[in-house]
Amino acid sequence: MTKKITAIFLALCMAISVLPMTIQAASKPDIKVGDYVKMGAYNNASILWRCVSIDNNGPLMLADKIVDTLAYDAKTNDNSNSKSHSRSYKRDDYGSNYWKDSNMRSWLNSTAAEGKVDWLCGNPPKDGYVSGVGAYNEKAGFLNAFSKSEIAAMKTVTQRSLVSHPEYNKGIVDGDANSDLLYYTDISEAVANYDSSYFETTTEKVFLLDVKQANAVWKNLKGYYVAYNNDGMAWPYWLRTPVTDCNHDMRYISSSGQVGRYAPWYSDLGVRPAFYLDSEYFVTTSGSGSQSSPYIGSAPNKQEDDYTISESAEDANPDWNVSTEQSIQLTLGPWYSNDGKYSNPTIPVYTIQKTRSDTENMVVVVCGEGYTKSQQGKFINDVKRLWQDAMKYEPYRSYADRFNVYALCTASESTFDNGGSTFFDVIVDKYNSPVISNNLHGSQWKNHIFERCIGPEFIEKIHDAHIKKKCDPNTIPSGSEYEPYYYVHDYIAQFAMVVNTKSDFGGAYNNREYGFHYFISPSDSYRASKTFAHEFGHGLLGLGDEYSNGYLLDDKELKSLNLSSVEDPEKIKWRQLLGFRNTYTCRNAYDSKMLVSSYECIMRDTNYQFCEVCRLQGFKRMSQLVKDVDLYVATPEVKEYTGAYSKPSDFTDLETSSYYNYTYNRNDRLLSGNSKSRFNTNMNGKKIELRTVIQNISDKNARQLKFKMWIKHSDGSVATDSSGNPLQTVQTFDIPVWNDKANFWPLGALDHIKSDFNSGLKSCSLIYQIPSDAQLKSGDTVAFQVLDENGNVLADDNTETQRYTTVSIQYKFEDGSEIPNTAGGTFTVPYGTKLDLTPAKTLYDYEFIKVDGLNKPIVSDGTVVTYYYKNKNEEHTHNLTLVAAKAATCTTAGNSAYYTCDGCDKWFADATGSVEITDKTSVKIPAPGHTVGTEWKSDDTNHWHECSRCHDKKDEAAHDYGSDNVCDTCGYYKTVPHTHNLTLVAAKAATCTEGGKEAYYKCEGCGKFYEDVLGTKEITDLASWGNIAKIAHTTKQTVTKATPTANGEIVNYCSVCKKTLSTTVIPKASSIKLKATSLTYNGKVRTPKVIVKDRTGKTLVKNTDYTVSYAKGRKYVGKYAVKITFKGKYSGTKTLYFTIKPKATSISSLKAGSKKFTVKWKKQATQTTGYQVQYSASSKFSKAKTVTVGKNTTVSKKISKLSGKKKYYVRVRTYKTVKINGKSIRIYSGWSKAKAVTTKK
């Protein structure tokens, strides 16, 4: 028997082997929008995909049908590392709307077997955490049934995914987007401000559509963006776009095609996956791309590792990506590294900016936190970026070249956001404040690491002072624990820490007496540069936070000079600044006892610069740390002087509204800076004020400054009154000595104890009344100068608007190669500045040679100053350039020939560089002076003696004629003067298109021009004399009103020359909607609100731009019209409709019978005609049957002829029959909540 079966089997095999077979060769299709592809499987069924769009990532493929109904994300925060769930407590109840760690993204991109999916947020979608019976934590990943070559055909893409406020408020945002995505339900409007909406980039293969991709489907394939399930029913499905101003809701496409919002934990919405096809590798084995014959294929030739998504991995490359040639080495005992991970760290040092010796500049040491060894290049670039941005803020900008900045590459094992081991053990507390933790790994003194460990080592090995360490930081010194480290503050002005994160936080710690002198700032948060500048204000400038409220402690009154609790304006510490720029006195919060000088300060709100009080304190503080600074002049301002806000009693109201009233008043009076042009010809008789504050930095010498102010015509000349007197004024101000300087944060001070804020400070106000007969012209402005005792201009009317440019410093060897461990920084300087820098004699172990780029005006961005160094023991090779011999002239010295070295600036007598010229005056040839003869030279006017060498004139004088017209000195004969024959050239009036000309006279004999008929005032430049400016246009206006379909415009034109002067577009009223189009009857007249917006999104104003009329009878069930009639700048009408539905009912009982059931419901007789009963064997009411009950008094219905022992779902709704346009229609209420019943046998 066995042999027989074997024989039959062999025979069948032979028969099969000779049957003809047709195998289609693999081909590469040209995928177009609308083509279909069959690929992969889910729930044992193949998946049909359709190309819905083609963009930069390639063909976008969308599942043809809903593949399942699943929750987007589970509710809960059980997992302490639950990432996005921990950012909002609302996500405990509704789930998270953050795509990147959602359950949906985890599942769609997983190939895992049942129960093995890696849920990125740590919270699986299990029973009780998603609605109904929708748990899918035990499901296999969506890609589980796809072949490896099918998965390879799905391109891994990085794309934009919008984020909501729990994310972007934590700095989880890319680019410069700055708005929430507006919530529009119409697919055509849903992407209104998409490109400016908060987003991050995510990388995946499979995803849900976002609103922009869904909008593309609508544009390309119309209604295809509406989804259907396998039963052919339209079904809602999730998008991956959150409702960005909500902490949990997601957007979805409804079964009717609207964009809706829904909580992520609900399980009744569909999943319609999408991916980008890798058309470079995708090949097909059959099909034509139609729905009935889709392409069937994969990417068998694409080599790809097994695919899954995950959070960012730890450092894959453990090696340094920066030079370690210049490093410091620490030995950290258990007080600083209890777990031993960082007990002997090597810390590469990079010079970011070193303009002078460390002993002359303020030294800033910046360390990194959460940067691995292979991320140190990013750390260096982050420091350069943050530093460059910080130097754009005053007062830092004025001191930008007085900082030396070093980046210390303190490498961590883990990145900060991954929660692993980091160098400083920084944690973020519940108040969102970052701090070095002493207890994270039991390292009790970790937060003293800057003063005790890093600072002393840096000063010994890197700092130009090279002070040896005074004690071992791992040993407690006898006596004071802190005093041996006080010297660190003499050499390091500030320690800073940059944390490698997008999270938004910041903190500063500034108790130097107890060893705290550092601040912490993020690298990549949405306001990282602003936070860095703010925290630097705490650390370096001693400024307090202006956003805290409550009572100001006594020590804060003394130490934080930008804060106060003194409400008396006569005693407030910044009393001399009151009324200058935005300086006021106001509560920093409602009912707070803490006072600030301005609401517009970076120490209160990082959207602003430093206020005037903080700038003043900053200048004073930094002047104590560097030399050669002797005066601070705040940028002056000019205002119309009305007497308002001119005395302390004007500043007694401390509330918010009063501050803004002051700023509005000031802005209305401002005449300087960007408000120069507000000065006009109506200023006759009015007063103007030039105001600034000046701080003497010297504690020895008083100063005397001169203020000049004048009215300047547009041609630069000074305006006059009717008598020709210039409109100008001058006043001198005495600036007192800063007697209290020694008490204000001197170099090395451990604390600010007490100082007189007003010592050495002078409020300067120059008031001038413009004469009533002032000859003012259009284009006049107020000009001014502040001058020192030597006439040097310290500030003028262009100071506030002066241009700034950037300068970069780089460090190189003589051969042009870069010096290791340098990364030249960039800072900002005023346009036209001549940099006066003195390069440090040493950099690391290298010796200074020369500098390029100094002592010439900086007039363009990108200017580079290069410092050149060489090894100290390296022999210098002279690069000699001949300076040719130059003969002396009578008045100018000459020189003999000599050679200069381009490298070391030495001079030599020979071309070989062997004979150095140490006395550089020895090559100079003095000027011999003039040699003058006795012969007179002359012209028509003068006579003179001439130098025989250079022919210069000496003894020059005018001719002295006798009665014979001969000069008595030189014998020159004067010719008889010409008599002019003058003809009047009539004046020409100016028009709006052409300038005019004043009358003048022309001599017909000599051709010269004169102002007067006597010919005494010659006009030497007729083209520029007597010109009369064009007169102003005579303006008229035409208005074309906007409509709902077309823009309007306002055109201003000249009625004389017909020139169009300006055109303003009136945007069309493109969005006209009712706030509600479906309401439920409640016995009251219903008036839904009309919302009208123009095409820019601006909301139009009712009764100004349009009126609304509503149809009568809006109290009852029916359909009603709302007519919008446009007015003002708009015309046209628009009619909208809304429906009042009858009240719904509810099922009161549901009883089973033999193959039947009886349903009873709550009577709803008001504004109803009858009821409908719907029943189905499906809870989703597929293939449901509907029975109509025509009387509203009937409240029960028996349904028979059913199957026995079968479960049915039942629901009821009301309806009312109404007539609309002569036709009877039914208007239905919503369905009641469904109930289930099982029939009897």
List the helices and strands and how they pair.
Blueprint: H1 2-18, E1 36-42, E2 45-55, E3 58-63, E4 68-69, H2 91-94, H3 103-108, H4 148-152, E5 154-155, E6 157-162, H5 165-168, E7 199-204, E8 206-207, H6 211-221, E9 227-228, E10 234-235, E11 237-242, E12 250-253, E13 259-262, E14 270-271, E15 274-277, E16 283-286, E17 295-298, E18 327-329, E19 346-354, E20 362-369, H7 376-390, E21 403-408, E22 426-428, E23 434-436, H8 449-461, H9 488-491, E24 494-499, E25 507-509, E26 518-522, H10 528-539, H11 554-559, E27 586-587, E28 595-596, H12 612-623, E29 631-633, E30 637-641, H13 656-669, E31 687-696, E32 703-712, E33 728-735, E34 761-769, E35 781-787, E36 793-796, E37 804-813, E38 826-830, E39 842-843, E40 846-852, E41 863-871, E42 880-883, E43 894-895, E44 898-901, E45 907-908, E46 924-925, E47 937-938, E48 942-946, E49 953-958, E50 982-985, E51 996-997, E52 1000-1003, E53 1009-1010, E54 1018-1019, E55 1027-1028, E56 1035-1040, E57 1048-1054, E58 1060-1066, E59 1071-1074, E60 1078-1080, E61 1090-1093, E62 1106-1110, E63 1118-1126, E64 1133-1141, E65 1147-1153, E66 1156-1161, E67 1170-1176, ...
Parallel strand pairs: 1-17, 20-21, 20-24, 24-26, 37-41, 60-64
Antiparallel strand pairs: 1-2, 2-3, 3-15, 4-14, 5-15, 6-7, 8-15, 9-10, 11-12, 12-13, 16-17, 18-19, 19-21, 22-23, 25-26, 27-28, 29-31, 30-31, 31-34, 32-33, 32-35, 35-36, 37-38, 39-40, 40-41, 42-44, 43-46, 44-45, 47-48, 48-49, 50-52, 51-55, 52-53, 53-54, 56-57, 57-58, 59-61, 62-63, 63-64, 65-66, ...
